[in-house]
Automatic annotation (TrEMBL):
Family classification: Belongs to the cyclic nucleotide phosphodiesterase class-III family.
Source taxonomy: Bacteria, Bacillati, Bacillota, Bacilli, Bacillales
Pfam families: Metallophos
Keyword line: Hydrolase, Iron, Metal-binding
Family annotation (Gene3D superfamilies): 3.60.21.10
Superkingdom, taxonomy of origin: Bacteria
Record-annotated Calcineurin-like phosphoesterase domain positions: 9-203
Organism of provenance: Paenibacillus plantarum
InterPro entries: Calcineurin-like_PHP, CNP_phosphodiesterase-III, Metallo-depent_PP-like
Protein name, as recorded: Metallophosphatase
């Protein structure tokens, strides 16, 4: 098996793509944001081995959105000259994803898999709970993950999943974390896992989970203000993570694309909870 270090790749997340012609979310054309990020990635001096997108591939999750997403990612993949791998998030729907993006028979089967790149193993998990915004790893995936990790990879394993496991600055976003992190911790303890990558919370958030580095990337479609404890403040901001694997460690460089970062919308979450 081919191995090399350092290994360099890109994590995007929460791209929220919609078919052209729909009323854009916050008046923003998310496909333009994806193209801008890929254009910046093409200027990097070190060419990444691949791109991984950690969920919320579309905003509405219908069939035409996934067909458009496939066309868009195929175009960007050709320009980048490297593969783009995807995971599902809470805004995604399995049947139209399988039919429109994978071009398979539609089914509600969970979407998870692993692949190797330069001796590094990437495991893509599906933390979405269909019909909710919550995140959980089911027993079938956990058993599969245990089998995958039974044999170490030459440069270790990085797990990609949508819902984070590391606490955030506020109670608001702590409500958006994986519901059963201890189940994941039990499976990865003593294995070759060197890092966890996630999204969902729309800002960079780095911490340690059972001694393993974890990084949530900023949303590509929009960002959230990590310091706001009562309101969800939606920001016209796009970010991603540069990931380097070197000497058996995952190293994360959070990146933000140029822009004015204006406030798009502010939602009082505490008031919504009080009325519910």
């Amino acid at each position: 098996m081919t191995t090399k270090e350092p290994i360099f790749f890109i994590q995007l997340t929460d791209i929220h793509i919609s078919t052209p012609g729909k009323k854009p979310l916050f008046g923003l054309e998310m496909s333009d944001k994806l193209r801008a990020a890929c254009a910046e990635i093409r200027t990097l001096e070190a060419k990444p081995s691949f791109v991984v997108i950690s969920g919320d591939l579309t905003h509405d999750g219908n069939l035409e959105d996934y067909r458009f997403l496939k066309k868009l990612l195929d175009e960007e993949e050709a320009l980048l000259g490297i593969p783009i791998h995807v995971a599902l998030g809470n805004h995604d729907f399995r049947e139209p994803f399988r039919e429109g993006f994978l071009e398979e028979e539609p089914s509600n089967e969970s979407y998870y898999y692993s692949f190797m790149a330069d001796g590094l193993r990437i495991v893509i998990l599906n933390t979405q709970v269909p019909g909710t915004h919550g995140g959980r790893l089911d027993d079938v995936q956990l058993a599969w993950l245990e089998q995958v990790l039974a044999e170490p990879a030459p440069s270790g394993t990085i797990i990609v999943h949508h819902h984070p496991v590391v606490k955030t600055p506020t109670v608001i976003m702590d409500d958006h974390l994986l519901e059963n992190p201890q189940d994941l911790a039990n499976v990865i303890e003593g294995t070759d896992v060197i890092g966890l990558l996630s999204g969902h919370i729309h800002y960079h958030n780095v911490g340690v989970f059972n001694g393993i580095l974890c990084a949530a990337a900023d949303g590509l479609a929009f960002g959230l203000d990590p310091s706001s404890s009562t309101n969800m403040r939606f920001i016209d901001r796009s970010g991603y993570n540069l990931i380097t694997v070197k000497n058996g460690q995952m190293i994360v460089q959070p990146m933000t694309l140029p822009g004015e970062q204006r406030l798009l919308y502010e939602m009082n979450v505490s008031k919504i909870h009080a009325e519910a």
